[in-house]
Design a protein that fits this description.
The chain is an alpha/beta fold and about 260 residues long. The chain is about 50% helix and about 15% strand.
């Protein structure tokens, strides 16, 4: 199916690995040219070489308030326009609420929330000019709280609300803003959680993975490519009536409305 993304220009943050890398691969396969953003320049360069379309590598830390504007400026210099912003960067510390430090909380909001907010603010006028789109990669913890995910849940809930706020503005200005909530997706982060569980309970990795999936009440873990396919759809004209949508990609983990 042609998603009519050929020749479009996008920015993907957190693109060096995991879900972000899969998103970049899916969008490039549809013909998009991309600015790839993450802290790891070597990984971004390796990814850029593997993509079928032209990509700009921008290695930087989005926790720095000046970086989002610099990313947008670099994209405009190279490509002349912006049609899509995918905010994917950001990981937060898990742990007991009483043991999480001020630094943990500040770092959690600095990258995933404030980095995304600043990227949206910096890119907005250019997306308005192209009638473009923003897609925020958030997470199911923003919809369902859990004791060990206090920072991530709070950050994700804030980013989901920002999605609705910007979608409301976008109705009048022609910018579509939507969000995806991945559940347990097979990435290095999930593998580390499985390894910790295996060590704690004396299980092999397959048994630990099966126990974790059972705890989440899902039949399996998701693949990064499954999230990426949904991003490509939401970025395309086929999703032209999606505005402020929040799509859970979690195998049924979220059971609330």
């Amino acid at each position: 199916m042609d998603l009519h993304l050929g020749g479009k220009i996008g920015i993907v943050t957190g693109a060096s690995r995991g879900i972000g890398r899969a998103i970049a691969e899916a969008l490039a396969a549809e013909g998009m040219q991309l600015t790839l953003v993450a802290r790891s320049g070597d990984q971004l360069a390796e990814l850029a070489k593997s993509l079928p379309t032209l990509s700009l590598v921008h290695a930087a830390d989005l926790r720095d308030p000046a970086v989002p504007e610099a990313v947008v400026a670099a994209t405009l210099r190279r490509f002349g326009r912006i049609d899509l912003l995918v905010n994917n960067a950001g990981a937060t510390s898990r742990g007991d609420f009483l043991n999480l430090t001020e630094a943990d909380w500040q770092d959690g909001f600095a990258l995933k929330f404030f980095g995304a907010m600043r990227c949206c603010r910096s890119a907005w006028s250019h997306l308005r000019a192209t009638q473009g789109s923003i897609i925020n990669i958030v997470g199911v913890g923003g919809r369902t709280g859990s004791a060990e995910f206090a920072i991530g849940g709070a950050v994700n809930a804030a980013l989901l609300n920002l999605t609705k706020v910007l979608a409301d503005r976008g109705v009048g200005e022609g910018v579509r803003v939507n969000a995806l909530n991945p559940g347990a997706i097979v990435t290095d982060r999930l593998r580390r959680r499985i390894e910790r569980l295996a060590a704690e309970k004396g299980l092999d990795l397959d048994a630990a993975a099966a126990e974790m999936a059972k705890t989440l009440n899902v039949s399996r873990f998701g693949g990064a490519a499954e999230v990426a396919a949904a991003v490509a759809f939401l970025a395309s004209p086929l999703a032209g009536y999606c505005q402020g949508a929040v799509l859970d990609i979690d195998g049924g983990q979220t059971r609330t409305l």
